[in-house]
Design a protein that fits this description.
Layout (H helix, E strand, L loop, with lengths): L3 H15 L4 H5 L1 E4 L2 E4 L12 H8 L9 E5 L5 H9 L4 E6 L2 H14 L4 E5 L11 E6 L32 H9 L4 E10 L5 H10 L3 E7 L5 E7 L3
Parallel strand pairs: 3-4, 3-6, 4-5, 6-7
Antiparallel strand pairs: 1-2, 7-9, 8-9
Length: 233
């Protein structure tokens, strides 16, 4: 039987969940890929849809080559740590503008024993300095400002800066696409998660930036989810 302190704690958690607080924040963890990640209200809760981005990135990283990878806006570290775990020869740089988010990601890397990940603070590509990479991946905010979904469900409790990005939701993606090619090696890939109705717009941005082999991949529900392109050789 639980003692009085445990019973009070349980009642508190039940009340917070009844008020809509996400379960991941209440228990402090969320599964992603093959990893169990610590999460706090400072980071977006990792979602299964983002595993599609990881799959597509892994298809473009030779496991026998010491590739250089960047994850922009890493949050809990989900993408960076999944890639680092599957490609131990790779060197992964995980960036975020939030020091609190970086602390969560760094803690996850330490707990998982992933030593091939480095962390840098800064807004999108500004954190990369003059470095160039073989692949850059990002799950940036892509919901439209004022979208009614932001006031519903788990989204009410997640960090707004990790969710919404301008009138059409594409402000962060525009910034990344404009600057990421300068941080990619010849032949390097850029992969971006986005909303179900943004595939055509993101492909147009990638084309305007001079990328080739542009495509949009769908998630398990057959919705546009990840657009990608390659810097010419």
């Amino acid at each position: 039987m639980p003692d009085a302190v445990q019973a009070a704690r349980f009642a508190e958690l039940v009340g917070r969940r009844a008020a809509g607080e996400p379960l991941a924040y209440l228990i402090g963890s969320q599964g992603f890929w093959t990893l169990d990640l610590a999460v706090t209200p400072d980071v977006l809760i990792p979602r299964a849809d983002t595993e599609r981005l990881v799959e597509l990135a892994l298809q473009r990283i030779d496991p026998g080559v010491p590739a250089r990878i960047a994850d922009l806006g890493t949050g809990s570290g989900a993408i960076a740590l999944a890639l680092a775990s599957e490609r131990p020869l790779a060197r992964v740089t995980a960036t975020d503008a939030s020091t609190a988010a970086l602390a969560v990601a760094q803690g996850n890397a330490r707990r998982l024993g992933l030593a091939n990940v480095a962390f840098a603070q800064g807004d999108w590509t500004t954190a990369l300095g003059t470095e160039r990479f073989d692949l850059i991946a990002s799950n940036p905010p892509y919901i439209r400002d004022g979208d009614p979904h932001l006031a519903r469900g788990d989204l009410r409790h997640e960090p707004p800066a990790a969710l919404a990005s301008g009138r059409d939701g594409l402000d962060a993606i525009r910034t990344i696409v404009a600057h990421a090619p300068a941080h990619l090696q010849h032949g390097g890939w850029l992969l971006l998660e986005h909303g179900y109705d943004q595939g055509a717009a993101v492909r147009a941005l990638l084309e305007a930036a001079g990328l080739i082999e542009i495509e949009t991949a769908c998630d398990i529900e057959a919705r546009d989810r990840v657009s990608l392109g390659r810097v010419p050789d």
